[in-house]
Amino acid sequence: MGGGRRAHEGTLGRAGAPADDVPAWRLFEQAVAAFLTALAPHARVVADARTPDQQTGRKRQRDVWIEVPFGGLFTLRILVSCKHKKAKLNEQDLDAFHGEFLNSGANKGVIYALSGFSAPALEKARKLGITCCGLYVNRPPDLPAQLPFHAYAYREQLKLDVGADPLPTRGEIAELLEVPVALEADAGPFVELLSARFLREREATRVAAPIGHPVTALIGLELDAPRDGRRLQVLLSSRWAVYRADMSAWLLNGTYAFTEGTFAGSLSTPWMDQANPHPGPGWVPVPAGEIDETVPRLISLSFGGDPASDLRAAYTGAVVGELAIADQVRPSSGRVSVLSRLGAQP
Known about the structure:
This protein is α+β, with helices and mostly antiparallel strands. The chain has helices at residues 2-9, 24-39, 91-102, 119-128, 170-177, 190-208, 307-314, and strands at 44-52, 59-70, 74-83, 108-113, 131-139, 150-163, 180-183, 186-189, 218-224, 231-245, 251-257, 262-268, 283-285, 297-302, 324-325, 336-342.
């Protein structure tokens, strides 16, 4: 909560007075009033208002008083109480506010609590028709329900497999990648042909798949080993590493109504690193089978770059893009044929 309060200290103090001279509870009231003003600019929002008590007629202090014109016919009045307490509000706090509400002449009662509400307090509030809110200023959520969707970052990884007996060495694999080959109308280093066909296959599966769904692709080529004529099967495939935005790394700016389960304002996921295999701090790996598909999802798909460059880098000592390599290839004689293809897979 402290981060949210500090965000207002430079702007919500008394006119002409340093914010440090303003009590924290007053800053809290001003922050709530500022947010509600921005949320409903057509309404009249007054912080530290004075309105008459319905029983005595004497003016009473109100943390925030809102008047909303309705269709030019009448005005709705909302009483907002701001509780700057370290402990969660309990049923007794709700009882006290309910009494103030009944004597205020308001049509609706709302409580903002710095530290939230106990479960019994929320239960009572719902029965009394009181809305219980929390104010968030660059703060992570307190409950998963405060996030309207989950955010996932998918990062493509490549895997190279070759069927050969005995298994080739890493140096032999590097040599194989540069062997000149010809396939149909294409000619060039083996790694370039393998990469080009993989990219075409990946694009075809991506176009055929539903928008936003990660797809996997596989291309297989066969080669004759130049030294002994053995038939080698080379497979280049893709897979996805999945990361989820950790709840503690989100930032909320706005109001969450605990009694209604609704949020008004803006929210942001953790910053995402697009230049490296891992999306960065605040993103945690999650098995694909543990993705909750019942919750709306925001999905970011980051496809790999040029497979030929990644393969070359992987076999010259610099592993790029978490490339997964199986050391299973011998140099080729140059004769190549297409083996198999794998279509879109959600």
